[in-house]
Amino acid sequence: MRLLIGVTGGIAAYKALELVRLATRAGHQVRVIQTPTSERFVGTAAFAAITGAPVLASEFEADPARGGYPGDAAADWVPISHLALVERADVYLIAPASANTLAKLAVGIADNLVTTAALAADCPLLLAPAMNNRMFLHPATQANVATLRARGVCVLEPASGALASRGEAGIGRLPEPAELLAAVETAHRETDSSWEGLRVLVSAGGTREPIDPVRYIGNHSSGRMGYAVAAAARRRGAQVTLLSANVTLPTPAGAEVIRVGTAAEMLVAAERVFPAADVLVMTAAVADFRPARPAAHKLKKTTVPLTEIALEPTTDILARLASQRRPGQTLVGFAAEHGAGAVAYGADKLERKGLDLVVVNDVSRSDIGFDSAENEVTLITATGAETVTKASKAAIAETILDTIVALRRGTAPAAPAVLSAGVADGGPGGVA
Ligand code: CTP
Fold first, then answer.
1. In angstroms, what is the span from residue 316 Cα to ligand 1's centroid?
2. What pTM did the predictor assign?
3. Is 60 exceeded by the pLDDT of residue 432?
4. CB of 201 closer than 6 A to ligand 1?
C-alpha cells in the first residue's frame, strides 16, 4: 500500500517514528510529510532515514522523489508536491493530529502541506488525535471531531492513560503504533477494489494417497491457512474456487468448493480451473509420493511387510500449472521447511517452479504452521524476503493478499536479496 503519513506538532510525534518503521517493515511504501511545528519534536531526517524517501515540510518545497513512493519509478516532470503525494496514496493518515489541525480540517483550512494534502485527498483519510485530555474533551475539539466524522473522515479514538504533562492522566494519548497500522490496513482493505472480479484458485488441506481401501499416506495439514486465504479473497470481492483436500472446516461464505482426496484428483481439478484463474495460491500439502499399486482389498497385517509398499512420485501440480501459465496470472506456492536454510530453500523453489511468491513456514516449530491456528511465515519474491511475525492465519492471509496486490501492480517492495539455496530434501510442501 502507498501510505502517506502526515505528522503534526505534538509530543506524540516520536511515536510516529515507530509507526513508520512498522509500516515500512510490513512492506508498505511510505512517504511522510510534516508541519513546521512537528519539526520541533522530530526532525525530517529521522523519518527520511526510516522510509528511504524524502520528507517534505512545506508546500513550496520541490519533492526530490517527484511524488514517487519508495519503489516507484520517478516521474519525468516536476509535480505539485502536496497534490502528487496524496493523489498516489492509498491511505492518508495524520498521526498525531493536533487539536489545531483537527480544527483546521473541520473548516477546510489548508495552510500547510499536511492540511493542504488532506483537502486534496480522495483516498481514505484517517486522523489519530493526540493531545492533553482537557484539550481533547473541550467542546470545540469534540465538535470538530463530530464534523469530520460526519464528513466520512475516520477519526480514531485516542487512548487513555498517562499524558505528557507531569502528573496528568486521561484520554488523549496516541494509540500504539501497531494499532494505528492495523487501522490503516483495515481502511485500505475496505476500499481495495483490485480484487473485484478476480478469479482466485486456492488449494487447501492435505492429500491422502491410498495404500488400500482403508489406509492411506497423509499429513497433518488442517486446511486452515488455505481456508483463511479463500475467506480473505472473498471478503475483498474475488471469485474464489477452493480445491479442498480432506478438510473439515466450514466453507468460506461465497467460495466454490471442489473436494478432492488424492494428489491425482487435485491435479485434474486444478488443470480444469487454472486456465481461467488470475491468481493461484497453493497452500495444500500435496503428497510427493503415493503407493504405486494400492491394494484393491484391505491388506492383512500378516500379508505384506511395510517395506514392500512401493512408492511412485506424484505430479508436482504447482510446477505443472506454472509451465502452463499465461501472462497476467500470479502464482503463489508454499514451502514447509525445517529450521536453518528455510528461506534459501524457499527462494530456490520460487525460481525452480517459476513462481511469483513463495510463503515459507518453519515446520520444526510446534507452535506455528501445521494444524495450528497461528503461523509465522517468510514471504519470498524475486526482489527479496520479508518475515511476517507470528500472527493468526487470517492476518497472515491478508498480508499474502497485500503482497499479491503489490506484485500485480509491479510494486512489490524491494527487500534484502535472498541467498540462493543449497538445502536438502523436505516433506510435502504446503501448510496447515
Ligand atoms: N505442490 C504441488 N504438487 C505436489 C507437491 C507440492 O503442487 N505434488 C505444491 C504445494 O502445494 C506447495 C509447494 O508445491 O505450494 C510445495 O513444494 P514441494 O515441492 O512440495 O516442496 P518440497 O517437497 O519440500 O520440495 P522438493 O520439490 O524439492 O521436494
1. 6
2. 0.71
3. no
4. no
